[in-house]
Design goal:
Protein name: BMP/retinoic acid-inducible neural-specific protein 3
Keywords: Glycoprotein
Number of strands: 22
Radius of gyration: 51 Å
InterPro entries: BRINP, BRINP_C, BRINP_EGF
Helix content: 25-40%
Pfam families: BRINP_C, EGF_BRNP1-3
Organism: Labeo rohita
Distance between the termini: 126 Å
Shape: elongated
Number of helices: 14
Largest sheet: 6 strands, antiparallel
C-alpha cells in the first residue's frame, strides 16, 4: 500500500483504463513530476518534457507506474488499490466495464460516485452564465439604439408585429446592435451547453440529478412582442404581456392595471382607414365597403329602406290568383279611364286602332303613394257571328311623364304571362280577358296604356287553318265585319308608402353629410333602393332604369341632377370590395 500512496501523490483523478500487453495505461491528470520510468510513452525522460503536464480533464497522458517493477502476483492488487485510492478517494473500489468506469462504493460512503465539489463548481459556473445572459439582454434593452427605436415608433395608430418588424429592418443602428447581442449570447449559450454536459456527466451516478434551467437565445419575434408590450402594457410601472389578437394586456397585478391606450388599427377590410385625432382608440374613417358606426368600422349593409319606399305584400301567388279571378275589391285600384276613341259600354267599329288608358294621377292626388300592378282585367263583347278578333298591346308608365317613357309588356314572351280568355254565360258574345302578373312579374305603374287592334278571322283555302289579316287589307273596305264594345277595364294591385322628402334628405347628404359616415350610409341606402326598384323590370337583357324615372317624376329632379346622382352611385360602387358593374337600360329622359 506504500507504493499505492506513492502513486496517489502524483495523480489526482482517473478517467479511463486500458490494458495492452501487460501495460496498464492510465488517463490521469498530472500535478507534479517525479523521477522514474512511466512507460507507455514515447519520451525517455518526462522530467524534461513540460508539455505533458496537463491541467484539465479533457487532456490525457499514458503512464505506466510502479507496476513495472513489482512482481507479477502483486501487480493486479497494486493497480486495484491504487485506482480505488486515486479514483474513489479510498471510499470504494474502482470498476471498469463496457468502456465505462465508476466506483463501487463502500457502505460508509454511499455517495462516493458523486463528486459534490466538482458539481457545485459547475453549478456556480452555470449561474454566472445565466447572470451574464440576463445582463446582455438588459444592456441591449437599455442601449441607445433600442431606446431610440422605441422613441421613433408611430403612435397615431396601433402597430402589429409585422409593422414593427418592417421598421426594425430599416433601422441600421439597431440592426448592428442586435447582431452584437446575437453574437455574445451565442457564445454564452455554447459555454452553457458544454458546462451542462459536464454537470450531467459528473452527476449521472448521484442519487439526485441537478436541475438545470437551460438558456435560450431570444429570437427576433420575442423582441417584437416585447416592443408591443412596452408600447401598450407598461402603465403604473408595470410591464405586462400584449396579446396582439385580442388587443389587451395580461398584467402582473390586477390593480393597478398595466393596460395603456391601444390606438385603433389601421389597415384593409374592417380595420380603420384612419384614427380619430380626439380619441385614438376610435376610427375616423373606414375602407370602401365599410361604414363608421360609433367609432368602429362595420361591413356596409344598408339600413332598412321600407320607410322610404314600400315594396312587399304578404299575399302569395295562389292567393293573388284567387283574388284576381274573383275581382276582389281589396286589390282593386281606382284608376281613371281616358280615351278619345272609345267609350265604355258603347259599341264601336273596331276596324281602326283604338287608344285607351287607365291612370291614377298620383302626382296630383297621391304624392305619398306608389303603386304595384298585379293584374289587368277587361270585358270585351262582340256582335254575333263577328269575324273580328281583338288584339291588345299594353304599355306601362311606372311613375308618370310622357307616353314615350313607358315600357311594353312582352305578353307571352320569355316566360311572361299571356291573356286568359273566359266566355261569359250571357246572350252576348262576351269574354273576360285577364292578365295575371302575380309576385313574379309585378311592377310599378302610374298609367297603363292600351292599344286595341283587330284582325279578321277567316278560314284558309285548304279549310283546315284559321287565317288572320288586318281589316284594311280586305278587298272591300266598306264591308262590315261586326262591332265591339268594352264593358269594363280594371287594374289590380296595391299602393305602397312613399316618402319623397325622406329620399330628398338622403340625396342631400351626398353633398352635406349630417354626421361622420352618414354619406356612405346614404349612398348604400340609395343603392339598395335603386336595386329593389329596378329589379321589378320586365324580362329583358338589361333591367330598366326605373329608379331614374322615380327621381325624375316623383321627386321632380332635373335630368342633370338625376345624372349626377347616378354618377355618384357608380363611383361609390366601384370602391366596394365586391364591385360588379351595374347596367340598366334607359327609360326616362
Amino acid at each position: 500500500m506504500n507504493s499505492a500512496r506513492w502513486a496517489a501523490q502524483r495523480f489526482t483523478s482517473i478517467n479511463s483504463l486500458d490494458k495492452d500487453n501487460n501495460c496498464f495505461c492510465l488517463s490521469l491528470q498530472v500535478t507534479e513530476t517525479r523521477t522514474g520510468p512511466l512507460g507507455c510513452s514515447n519520451y525517455d525522460n518526462l522530467d524534461s518534457v513540460s508539455s505533458v503536464l496537463v491541467h484539465s480533464q479533457e487532456n490525457k497522458v499514458q503512464l505506466q507506474g510502479l507496476q513495472a517493477i513489482l512482481p507479477s502476483y502483486l501487480r493486479s492488487n497494486f493497480v486495484q488499490a491504487a485506482l480505488g485510492y486515486i479514483g474513489c478517494n479510498a471510499e470504494g473500489q474502482f470498476v471498469c466495464k463496457d468502456n465505462d468506469c465508476w466506483c463501487q462504493c463502500s457502505k460508509e460512503f454511499p455517495q462516493c460516485n458523486c463528486p459534490e465539489a466538482d458539481i457545485r463548481s459547475q453549478e456556480n459556473y452555470l449561474e454566472r452564465m445565466r447572470e451574464a445572459w440576463r445582463q446582455e439582454n438588459q444592456e441591449f434593452q437599455d442601449s441607445d439604439e433600442f431606446q431610440s427605436f422605441m422613441g421613433k415608433l408611430p403612435t397615431q395608430s396601433a402597430l402589429n408585429s409585422s409593422r414593427i418588424q418592417q421598421l426594425w429592418k430599416t433601422d441600421s443602428a439597431l440592426q448592428q446592435r442586435y447582431r452584437q447581442l446575437e453574437s455574445r449570447v451565442s457564445l454564452l449559450l455554447s459555454k452553457t451547453r458544454r458546462t451542462a454536459n459536464k454537470l450531467f456527466s459528473l452527476s449521472k451516478r448521484c442519487r439526485t440529478q441537478p436541475k438545470i434551467a437551460s438558456l435560450r437565445e431570444r429570437p427576433l419575434s420575442y423582441w417584437l412582442q416585447f416592443t408591443l408590450s412596452i408600447l401598450y402594457c407598461s402603465e403604473n410601472n408595470q410591464l405586462g404581456f400584449y396579446a396582439e389578437e385580442l388587443r389587451i394586456c395580461a398584467c402582473p397585478y390586477e390593480s393597478p392595471s398595466c393596460q395603456g391606450i391601444v390606438p385603433c388599427e389601421v389597415g384593409d377590410g374592417h380595420r380603420c382607414a384612419s384614427c380619430s385625432v380626439d380619441n385614438r382608440t376610435r376610427c375616423s374613417s373606414c375602407n370602401p365597403g365599410y361604414v363608421l358606426s360609433h367609432g368602429v368600422c362595420k361591413y356596409a349593409v344598408p339600413n332598412p329602406t321600407d320607410h322610404y319606399l314600400g315594396f312587399e305584400t304578404d299575399l302569395q301567388d295562389l292567393e293573388l290568383r284567387y283574388l284576381l279571378q274573383h275581382r276582389d275589391g281589396r286589390i282593386t285600384t281606382h284608376a281613371i279611364f281616358v280615351s278619345n276613341d272609345v267609350r265604355l259600354n258603347v259599341w264601336f267599329d273596331p276596324s281602326w286602332r283604338k287608344r285607351m288608358l287607365l291612370t291614377l294621377k298620383s302626382n296630383k292626388f297621391k304624392s305619398n303613394r306608389v303603386h304595384m300592378l298585379l293584374g289587368i282585367s277587361l270585358q270585351i263583347c262582340m256582335t254575333k257571328n263577328s269575324t273580328i278578333e281583338p288584339t291588345m298591346s299594353v304599355y306601362v308608365n311606372p311613375f308618370g311623364g310622357s307616353h314615350s317613357e313607358s315600357w311594353t309588356m312582352p305578353i307571352n314572351q320569355n316566360g311572361y304571362p299571356d291573356w286568359e280568355k273566359t266566355k261569359l254565360d250571357i246572350p252576348l258574345d262576351c269574354f273576360n280577358w285577364t292578365l295575371t302578373l302575380g309576385n313574379r312579374w309585378k311592377s310599378f305603374f302610374e298609367t297603363v296604356h292600351f292599344y286595341l287592334r283587330s284582325r279578321i278571322r277567316t278560314e284558309s283555302s285548304q279549310g283546315n287553318d284559321t287565317v288572320y289579316f288586318e281589316p284594311l287589307e280586305a278587298t272591300d273596305a266598306s264591308q262590315n265585319f261586326g262591332y265591339m264594345k268594352i264593358n269594363s277595364m280594371q287594374l289590380f294591385g296595391y299602393s305602397m308608402h312613399f316618402d319623397p322628402e325622406a329620399i330628398q334628405d338622403l340625396i342631400l347628404q351626398l353633398d352635406y353629410p349630417y354626421t361622420q359616415g352618414s354619406q356612405d350610409s346614404a349612398l348604400l341606402q340609395l343603392m339598395e333602393i335603386r336595386y329593389r326598384v329596378n329589379r321589378l323590370s320586365p324580362p329583358g337583357p338589361l333591367p330598366l332604369d326605373l329608379f331614374s324615372c322615380l327621381l325624375r317624376h316623383r321627386l321632380k329632379l332635373s335630368s342633370s341632377e338625376v345624372q349626377r346622382i347616378l354618377t355618384t352611385l357608380q363611383t361609390f360602387s366601384a370602391k366596394q370590395p365586391f364591385y360588379k358593374e351595374y347596367e340598366a337600360a334607359k327609360l326616362c329622359s
